Amino acid sequence: MTTIPTVPATDVPRLAAAGANILDVREPGEHAELRLTAPHAFVPLGTLDPQDYMLRHGLVADDAVYMLCRSGKRATTAAQKFVDAGYKNIFVIEGGILACQSHGVSVEGAARPASCAISSDAAGGCA
Asked: What's the pTM?
């Protein structure tokens, strides 16, 4: 297994502002409960096909993809799938959505009080 580079959760706002491709690989219920407000893609790990993902999102082999899950384990598994398929600029967001939330990165979802929810431009059905 290859060592996958990581980025701190505190980098997520900067990455999102720069238009980075962030991929959440959690299950649908988890994503509905808590998710980034920043634009991101959502594909559960069990259905993730790296080549299909890259094609559907108009990405080329050298484009960076940042993996996100609850705490990091599934994101690492997803990243390894991309590496095994020949992609090189693949990163894991350290600590996942839990670290994002604890570091003040903007999140929303059913588990958040309405006063905390911030609408998102989640293009492409990525809500």
From this structure: 0.85
Question: What's the rounded Cα separation, in Å, for the pair 22 and 53?
Answer: 12
Sequence spans of domains, the chain:
6-116
Residues 37-93 pLDDT 10s: 999 999 999 999 999 999 999 999 999 999 999 999 999 999 999 999 999 999 999
* Amino acid code (one letter) for 7: V
CATH architecture of 6-116: 3-Layer(aba) Sandwich (3.40)
At 125, the amino acid letter reads: G
Place of tokens 């929303």: 108
Per-residue tokens: 121: 């431009």
Q: What is the C-alpha separation between 59 and 61, in angstroms, rounded?
A: 7
Contacts 24+ apart (CB under 8 A), 45-48: 45/69, 45/74, 45/77, 45/78, 48/78, 48/81
The amino acid sitting at 23 is L
